[in-house]
């Protein structure tokens, strides 16, 4: 069964450094998402992406964040200058887009645990 | 703003018992979608069951069923004949119709099935 994959599984970085989190969505899916979960807190939506552009972003997704689909398979989240509060588990998800994405099941990757020191 | 509340941080039951996980939500929307996701230890979240708010019939998937009470804004998950493999974090999530498909999450319930 197709799965969403994410690399790396863990990343440790110094404050102020740039990080790129990588995701390979399910191959025929059209909608892509990033969520994060700070330890002990709820999962939070960051951004949704369709047709090579951002569909929606949350207040968390400020100018330090960007997303890109550099080729036909990868979907990346970049944090330009990491802060201590960016430490979290970052989840990528994708959905088919057959119904325009509405109400569709989102399929999640295993997450990347980011630790900013 | 929409919120999702799971009032049970942790539950444990014996194998083969039935367990119900609670979820309430707050919204002024009439059309929306509700989901239960399961996250086993060290594994990714997978969908357990979904419900469309305009459908009165409660969704069922094998041993998993929901009790959807729209007026009460309640969406509980019932697991029948619980199995050891049901041990996981369970998250309730809400998607409103015009949200560009973002999921709004509850805090999760850690369910432990004891042998």
Would you kindly provide a written description of the structure presented here, covering whatever features stand out?
The complex is a heterodimer of chains A (117) and B (115). Helix content of chain A is 0%, strand content 49%. Chain A is built from no helices and 11 strands. Chain B has 115 residues and is an all-beta fold. In chain B, 0% of the residues lie in helices and 52% in strands. In chain B, the strands form 3 sheets. In chain B, strands 2, 5, 6, 10, 11 and 12 form a 6-stranded mixed sheet that branches. Chain B has a 4-stranded antiparallel sheet with strand order 3-9-8-7, with no helix packed on it. Chain B has a two-stranded antiparallel sheet with strand order 1-4. At the A-B interface, strand 4, strand 5 and strand 10 of A face strand 5, strand 6, strand 10 and strand 11 of B.
Average pLDDT score of chain B: 93
**What is the N-to-C succession of helices and strands of chain B?**
EEEEEEEEEEEE
Identify the quaternary structure here. Answer: heterodimer
The chain-level structural class of chain B is mainly beta
What's the pLDDT, averaged over the residues of chain A?
A: 93
Shape, principal axes of CA atoms of chain A? globular
Percentage of residues in strands of chain A: over 45%
- How many helices of chain A does DSSP assign? 0
The percentage helix of chain B is under 10%
Class from secondary-structure proportions of chain A: mainly beta
The biggest beta sheet of chain A, please?
7 strands, mixed
Coarse shape of chain B? globular
Give the amount of beta strand of chain B, in percent. over 45%
Keywords, please?
heterodimer, A: 117 residues, mainly beta, 7-stranded mixed β-sheet, 4-stranded antiparallel β-sheet, globular, B: 115 residues, 6-stranded mixed β-sheet
List the helices and strands and how they pair.
The complex is a heterodimer of chains A (117) and B (115).
Chain A: E1 5-7, E2 10-13, E3 19-24, E4 31-37, E5 43-50, E6 53-57, E7 65-68, E8 75-79, E9 88-95, E10 107-108, E11 112-116
Parallel strand pairs in A: 2-11
Antiparallel strand pairs in A: 1-3, 3-8, 4-5, 4-9, 5-6, 7-8, 9-10, 9-11
Chain B: E1 3-5, E2 10-14, E3 19-21, E4 24-26, E5 32-39, E6 46-52, E7 60-61, E8 64-69, E9 74-79, E10 88-96, E11 104-105, E12 109-114
Parallel strand pairs in B: 2-12
Antiparallel strand pairs in B: 1-4, 3-9, 5-6, 5-10, 7-8, 8-9, 10-11, 10-12
């Amino acid at each position: 069964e197709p799965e969403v994959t994410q690399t790396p599984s863990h990343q440790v970085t110094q404050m102020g450094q740039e990080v790129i989190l990588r995701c390979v969505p399910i191959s025929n899916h059209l909608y892509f998402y990033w969520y994060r979960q700070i330890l002990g807190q709820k999962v939070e939506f960051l951004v949704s992406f369709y047709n090579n552009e951002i569909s929606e972003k949350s207040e968390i997704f400020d100018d330090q964040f960007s997303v890109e689909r550099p080729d036909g398979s990868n979907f990346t989240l970049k944090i330009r200058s990491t802060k201590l509060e960016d430490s979290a588990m970052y989840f990528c998800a994708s959905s088919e887009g057959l119904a325009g994405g509405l109400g569709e099941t989102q399929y999640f990757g295993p997450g990347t645990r980011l630790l900013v020191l | 703003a929409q919120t999702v509340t799971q009032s049970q941080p942790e539950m444990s039951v014996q194998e083969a018992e039935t367990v119900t996980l609670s979820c309430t939500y707050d919204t002024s929307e009439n059309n929306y979608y509700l989901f239960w996701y399961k996250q086993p230890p060290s594994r990714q979240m997978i969908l357990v069951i979904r419900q469309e708010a305009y459908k009165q019939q409660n969704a069922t998937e094998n041993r998993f069923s929901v009790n959807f009470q729209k007026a009460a804004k309640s969406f509980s998950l019932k697991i029948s004949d619980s199995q050891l493999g049901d041990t996981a974090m369970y998250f309730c999530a809400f998607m409103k119709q015009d949200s560009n498909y973002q999921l709004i999450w509850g805090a999760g319930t850690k369910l432990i099935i004891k042998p």
